[in-house]
């Protein structure tokens, strides 16, 4: 296992490297014409870069946003001498595989999302865990403190691998994921005593996570929170046939009651947004739940995990529930969330597991006593 001292040295060496920057004097191809690719094209054009077009392995259109779309086979030798920016950023397509496709096509000037974001973070805005490398290299003391508190070598290695990958120093990690089931696995299910499970799901989406849980074990009571109206309607439809004590709430979990702007892509990627076209109500679990016991809390709340945990501090201190908390919505979550949980209740063993590609769906498991 890589030691923390080796990681510290890597960070020091990384900070001395020249940043890889896209040049405005040479055309840029963008691999991927999805949302991230289109947003990147818009940013480059606004910054006076020449965008030569999009590249897709299997183009569905000849043109997107007034820019041509090419297949790999349509590119000339001269095209392949230009810059290519990887415009795909999600949990489905491993970054090392995307880089390999560009290399196999003959490109040498390849720019990964972390290179791009370092250069255009202000223009691109929040993009999950993407962030300036300084966010990591300037927080080494905090990261080390959390690293030392993790309860097994798998978690320690996972933390360092994720951070190294996000620094652009271990692209091959993009294809890695642990075999453990997300949320409901040996770490969490083994800690449920006497089959008495009282469950809170923050970010219940369409109920898929809850349905998976009910297939594994008996649930005595569940509170399912989902603020997106479309997702909430699906949630209601998907759990109405179940016999358990289930309450579905069209609310977001935070640190207090509030009404916030909200944006949604109609799926899993809904989030608080200053310019959101919808509005949602938020609630703190401590304000909503009084004199009740819950022993499992899962949170996947699109970047509001820290607020949600602060709003559940009394519940956590009193009940010591199992916690399964997403760590990938903000670059600093991977150390700030464990720090916060440790401050709320020191009676936890902390584990990290990686459940999907590109360090998306990494989860902190806090297991009581």
- Strands ordered across the widest β-sheet: 9-8-7-14-15-17-16
CATH architecture of the largest domain: 3-Layer(aba) Sandwich
* Principal-axis shape: globular
Supply the number of helical segments: 14
Task: Write up this protein.
The chain is of the alpha/beta class. It contains 14 helices and 17 strands.
Chain-wise SSE layout:
Elements: H1 4-16, E1 28-31, H2 35-46, E2 51-55, E3 63-64, E4 67-70, E5 83-86, H3 95-105, E6 109-111, H4 113-124, H5 133-137, H6 140-149, H7 153-166, H8 186-189, E7 198-202, H9 208-216, E8 221-225, H10 229-239, E9 245-249, E10 252-253, E11 258-263, E12 271-272, E13 278-283, H11 285-288, E14 296-299, H12 305-310, H13 313-319, E15 322-326, H14 333-344, E16 348-354, E17 362-368
Parallel strand pairs: 1-2, 1-5, 2-4, 5-6, 7-8, 7-14, 8-9, 10-13, 14-15
Antiparallel strand pairs: 3-4, 11-12, 11-13, 15-17, 16-17
Helix pairs in contact: 6-14
Short recap of the structure:
By secondary structure, the chain is of the alpha/beta class. The protein has helices at residues 4-16, 35-46, 95-105, 113-124, 133-137, 140-149, 153-166, 186-189, 208-216, 229-239, 285-288, 305-310, 313-319, 333-344, and strands spanning 28-31, 51-55, 63-64, 67-70, 83-86, 109-111, 198-202, 221-225, 245-249, 252-253, 258-263, 271-272, 278-283, 296-299, 322-326, 348-354, 362-368. The protein starts with a helix and ends with a strand.
């Amino acid at each position: 296992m890589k030691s923390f001292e080796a990681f510290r040295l890597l960070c020091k060496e990384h900070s001395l490297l020249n940043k890889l920057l896209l040049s405005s004097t040479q055309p840029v191809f963008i691999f991927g014409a999805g949302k991230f690719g289109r947003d990147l094209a818009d940013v480059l054009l606004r910054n006076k870069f020449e965008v030569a077009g999009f590249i897709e392995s299997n183009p569905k259109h000849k043109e997107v946003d007034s820019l041509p779309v090419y297949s790999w086979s349509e590119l000339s030798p001269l095209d392949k001498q230009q810059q290519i920016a990887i415009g795909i950023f999600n949990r489905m397509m491993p970054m090392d595989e995307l880089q390999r496709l560009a290399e196999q096509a003959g490109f040498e000037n390849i720019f990964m999302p972390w290179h791009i974001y370092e250069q255009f973070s202000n223009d691109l805005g929040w993009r999950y865990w993407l962030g300036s490398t300084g966010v990591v290299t300037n927080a080494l003391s905090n990261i080390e403190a959390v690293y030392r508190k993790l309860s097994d070598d798998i978690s320690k290695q996972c933390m360092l691998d994720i951070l190294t990958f996000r620094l652009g120093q271990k692209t091959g990690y993009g294809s890695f994921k642990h075999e453990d089931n997300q949320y409901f696995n040996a770490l969490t299910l083994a800690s449920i005593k006497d089959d008495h499970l009282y469950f809170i799901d923050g970010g219940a989406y369409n109920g898929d996570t809850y349905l998976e849980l009910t297939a594994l074990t008996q649930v005595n009571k569940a509170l399912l929170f989902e603020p997106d109206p479309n997702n909430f309607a699906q949630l209601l439809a998907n759990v109405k046939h179940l016999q358990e004590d289930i309450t579905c709430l069209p609310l977001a979990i935070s640190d207090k009651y509030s009404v916030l702007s909200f944006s949604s892509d109609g799926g899993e990627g809904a989030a608080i947004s200053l310019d959101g076209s919808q509005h949602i109500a938020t609630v703190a679990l401590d304000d909503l739940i009084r004199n009740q016991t819950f022993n499992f809390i899962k949170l996947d709340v699109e970047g509001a995990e820290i607020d949600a945990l602060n709003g559940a501090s009394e519940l956590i201190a009193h009940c010591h529930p199992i916690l399964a908390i997403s760590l990938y919505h903000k670059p600093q979550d991977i150390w700030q969330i464990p720090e916060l949980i440790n401050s709320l209740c020191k009676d936890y063993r902390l584990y990290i597991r990686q459940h999907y590609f590109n360090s998306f769906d990494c989860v902190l498991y806090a297991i009581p006593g």
